[in-house]
Specification:
This protein is of the alpha/beta class and about 130 residues long. The chain contains 4 helices and 8 strands.
Length: about 130
């Protein structure tokens, strides 16, 4: 993720860099979808936080998806590395630009990349391995 931000900065894509930093670091209305439970905080959420177990139901279970621009998917246990991440589950999220996958367990970007299915290059996929963080 950090290398993508650096590349945007070095290539002079200030507008894109500013927008992504805003989505990553500023407070936003958000939807949290985990273990079949959906919680929405604020109006017109622009962020969605979920886990690998909830991805397949997001298109039908999240009603306020029109303004969501960034999704964060957490991988928290080794078993999550055995479940694919089907990007077609986000087809109803019209403004979605970024999908961030954060692993809380030891893995590699290549292993995470192997989980991705139906990648149409519609989204910017970012990875972060954050053990103990």
């Amino acid at each position: 993720m950090d290398s993508y931000l650096t590349n945007l900065e070095n290539s002079g894509q200030d507008s894109k860099l500013s927008n992504l930093k805003h989505l990553l670091y500023d407070l936003h209305s958000a939807v949290y979808a985990s273990s079949g439970e959906i919680k929405t905080y604020g109006n017109e959420p622009t962020a969605l936080f979920t886990d690998n177990n909830s991805i397949n139901s997001l298109n039908t279970s999240v009603s306020l998806k029109n303004d969501i621009q960034i999704v964060t998917i957490k991988i928290e246990k080794a078993a999550d590395l055995n479940k694919s991440i089907d990007l077609s589950s986000f087809s109803g999220f019209e403004k979605l630009k970024y999908i961030i996958i954060i692993s809380k367990i030891a893995t590699t970007p290549a292993a995470i990349n192997n989980l991705i299915q139906n990648d149409t290059s519609k989204y910017v996929l970012l990875y972060k391995i954050s053990i103990g963080g």
